Amino acid sequence: MNTAVEQLFLDNASNRHLDWLESEAIHIMREVAAECSNPALLFSGGKDSVVLLRIAEKAFRPGKFPFPLVHIDTGHNFAEVITFRDQRAAELGETLIVRSVEDSIKRGTVRLRNPLTDSRNAAQAVTLLETIAEFKFDACIGGARRDEEKARAKERIFSFRDEFGQWNPKAQRPELWDLYNTRVHPGENMRVFPISNWTELDVWQYIAREKLALPPIYFAHERQVIPRNGLLVPLTDLTPAKEGEVVENKIVRFRTVGDISCTCPVASDADSVEAIIAETAVTQITERGATRMDDQTSEASMEKRKKEGYF
Fold first, then answer.
1. pTM of the model
2. Is 278 in contact with 270 (CB distance < 8 Å)?
3. How is 156-207 classified by DSSP, letter by letter?
4. Which of 50, 116, 138, 161 minimizes the number of CB atoms within 10 Å of its CB?
5. 3-state helix, strand, coil in the chain (%, to 5)
């Protein structure tokens, strides 16, 4: 088999795989719309939620989405991502609801030792639960994937949360033959993950195929960083250099975007989707393992946050 034929075979196989993943995600999205009375789609402006928007377009266009877009803003997000979030929502003509951790701090429902500098990542859980209660959402669609982290690998596609917003990994509902139990009592809700079965590589291949726009920080750029505990901490007002640390200029990109206080870039010269796909295909470090300071506190960090109501 010559090289051109081999490449055509691989391209066709990749497209069939993406078609299957897309079809499953569309089915899940429509299941939410059919079975849940008041759902919402969590949209941060990150790559996974960008993919969810395209899935929603394919599931429901030319009609409007049967749910609003919701973002829980820590107030410590990268400016490029927030700008992109607002632009994308406006382009789609869909409702975007933004609720902030800062408002929860002012209400006293979130308390941090230093509200100006402490990580607000885990505090998002409180604001999310307040938002769910405010709008009486019975399902929140999110872009979590099982390959991201051990706790997320335990999630069902329809992940039940009790009246306190808590997740119990030992009380998961069976999902045999793609049959989903969506029943909830008042105060309970579902977190739904249509791209659970996707990998980071699948996401980037889908972005390439669908020609999806992304915030520029996903691509290689020069940035001041601080090498710390095997990570590259971005130099910002929220994450300054500690005594004795050296600030370096490096070409980096972000594999994931989140709260500035806990999200790190990786050294990379991948400045296009195609280059990122090639890089992702050979990496042996998980997305969150390479970029998230909050997941390094212990192996159970994410599971503990999810039990408390985190995404």
1. 0.86
2. yes
3. -SEEEE-TTS---GGGPPP-GGG-------TT-EEEE-TTTT--HHHHHHHH
4. 116
5. 45, 15, 40
User: What whole-number percentage of the chain has pLDDT above 70?
Assistant: 87
Containing 69, the helix (H) or strand (E) segment is strand 69-73
Which among 178, 182, 96 has a CA at the least distance from the CA of 135? Answer: 96
Query: What are the CA-CA distances from residue 265 to residues 5, 21, 97, 104, 211 (Å)?
Result: 37, 28, 28, 28, 23
pLDDT lower than 70: segments of the chain: 1-11, 149-152, 288-311
DSSP designation for 40: E
* Integer Cα distance of 58 and 25 in angstroms: 10
| 178 within 8 A of 20, measured Cβ to Cβ | no
Question: Distance between CA atoms of 198 and 207, rounded to whole angstroms?
Answer: 12
One-character DSSP codes across 249-272: EEEEE-SS---GGGB--EE----S
What residues contact 238, with CB distance under 8 A and at least 6 apart?
76, 117, 260, 261
Calpha distance 298→304 (Å, rounded): 10
**Does the N-terminal peptide bond of residue 174 adopt cis geometry, omega within 30 degrees of 0?**
no
38: nearest Cα among 109, 107, 172, 131: 131
